Automatic annotation (TrEMBL):
Molecular function as annotated in GO: ATP binding; ATP hydrolysis activity
Keyword match Iron-sulfur: no
Pfam families per the UniProt record, alphabetical: ABC_tran, oligo_HPY
Protein name as annotated: ABC transporter ATP-binding protein
Boundaries of every ABC transporter domain copy: 17-267
Highest taxon, organism lineage: Archaea
Organism: Natranaeroarchaeum aerophilus
Family to which this protein belongs: Belongs to the ABC transporter superfamily.
InterPro entries registered for this protein in UniProt: AAA+_ATPase, ABC_transp_ATP-bind, ABC_transporter-like_ATP-bd, ABC_transporter-like_CS, Oligopep_ABC_C, P-loop_NTPase
Keywords: ATP-binding, Nucleotide-binding, Transport
């Protein structure tokens, strides 16, 4: 691309972006003195790298911290801790000219192109605006660059004189991409770039992004909750849950043979003929915990269909899953409609959770009997404490390390070195 603002891109093999233990917390305040009473731990210790010219995907349910991660990388949010290196420089230390250069080299494409343009500015003016702001005063030169870029994103040079309302959503997103490209960036952050578009246009816009990164060697951070999009367009990805990355690695291996139970839940179906495997793709509980008070140990443990039983428990997998579902459903306050606390019907409690009577493990049976009686007596607090004491799990007790599993990293106790939990 001929661009006077062109900077020399480093061709080193080192990654373009290195994020280390990044934390971005939002304070929760109270009263007119705005006293801090807590913190939303939107991003809570994430590490990953983005290589030059690659598309890196960040996936996870709404609210898991994807946008906050992106905003922290772009310095739109101030990180609470950790570092982000961009081409070897810590972005939080940039000031003056270096900061301006960074702003030019890292561009954002937002979700909704309908909100990205002023209705009073022509498309040409909008696309040229970053050039003007960065000091290029030569109007005809700006115009040439804009026309060239509009053609590259599949529009015509003469479209520069038209206004945003004359374009469809997909065309507007192409124009947003042209605007992001005009300063010859090294990184484009695309935050759910097609969520406001219909499926047909979505594929066109994503193919455009893909072509552009191939043509210009630009890195793309693609944020999406849609695993199909990530599968088609990304080289590597990170899966986020409650402010943490639970699994990361090449797209083929992470989505082809996910190592983390949460990734399996996101994928929804385990490719297996064994129907009991299907239950492993369904979370134990539905509520995503509050990011200001995340669960101890593994943050996914109250929902994890593959939660590890205590060593002394000898139940088979399905039965243990029923016990765990009872335990955490009660803890999260999600009892099914068929269970009425305090109605004296302990059998209904067992039935609702598919807990056979008696269980094959005596200690487990005693605990389940006591806990279901406590629910039937309306004493869920006692039921909770009985279950907590009877079924201690490493998943609740300890924060899992990042374990390497067949070319991916998974933050899960199932893959701890020396663990035979893979057999579960
Ligand atoms: N400016 C803010 N102030 C306070 N809390 C915030 C702010 N921005 C985000 N949050 C909270 O931080 C958490 C992470 O939000 P974030 O938008 O990063 O998640 P996300 O994965 O991008 O979700 P979505 O897909 O819905 O955009 C959420 O609990 C959200 O409510």
């Amino acid at each position: 691309m001929s661009n006077p603002d062109h900077h020399t891109k480093s061709n080193g093999d080192e990654p373009l972006i290195v994020v280390e233990d990044l934390k971005t917390h939002y304070p929760i305040t109270e009263g007119w003195l705005r006293r801090e009473t807590g913190r939303i731990r939107a991003v809570d210790g994430v590490s990953f790298t983005i290589n030059r010219g690659e598309v890196f995907g960040l996936v996870g349910e709404s609210g898991c911290g994807k946008s906050t991660t992106a905003e922290s990388i772009l310095r739109l949010e101030e990180p609470t801790a950790g570092t982000v290196q961009f081409d070897g420089q810590a972005i939080t230390e940039l000031t003056g000219q270096a900061l301006r250069s960074f702003r030019r080299r890292a561009q954002l494409v937002v979700q909704d192109p309908n909100e990205a343009f002023s209705p009073r500015m022509t498309i040409g003016e909008a696309v040229a605006e970053p050039l003007r702001l960065h000091g290029m005063d030569d109007v005809s030169r700006r115009r040439r660059l804009v026309e060239d870029l509009l053609e590259r994103v599949g529009l015509s040079g003469t479209d520069a004189d038209r206004y945003p309302h004359e374009f469809s959503g997909g065309e507007k997103q192409r124009i947003s991409i042209a605007r992001a490209l005009i300063l010859n960036p090294d990184l484009i952050v695309a935050d759910e770039p097609t969520s406001a578009l219909d499926n047909r246009v979505e594929a066109d816009v994503l193919s455009l992004l893909d072509n552009i990164r191939r043509e210009y060697g630009i890195s793309v951070l693609l944020i999406s909750h849609d695993l199909d999009i990530v599968r088609r367009f990304c080289d590597r990805l990170a899966v986020m849950y409650l402010g943490e990355i639970v699994e990361k690695g090449p797209v083929d291996t992470v989505l082809g043979s996910p190592a983390h139970p949460y990734t399996r839940v996101l994928l929804e179906s385990v490719p297996s003929l064994d129907p009991s495997d299907q239950t492993l793709a369904r979370p134990l509980t539905n509520t995503v915990p509050d990011p200001s008070d995340p669960p101890k140990g593994c943050r996914f443990h109250p929902r994890c269909p593959e939660i590890i039983p205590p060593e002394h428990v000898t139940l088979d997998r399905d039965c243990w899953r029923s016990v765990a579902e009872f335990h955490f459903t009660l803890q999260m306050g999600e009892l099914p409609e068929t269970v009425t606390e305090g109605n004296g019907d302990a059998a209904a409690v067992r039935k609702a959770f598919d807990l056979p009577q008696p269980l094959s493990d005596d200690r487990a049976e005693t605990a389940i009997e006591t806990a279901s009686n406590a629910v039937a007596d309306g004493n869920t607090e006692r039921a909770n404490s009985v279950l907590k004491e009877a079924f201690p799990t490493v998943c609740e007790r300890e924060v899992p390390p990042e374990n390497s599993v067949d070319g991916k990293l998974a933050k899960c106790h199932l893959h701890n070195e020396g663990s035979d939990n893979d057999l579960l």
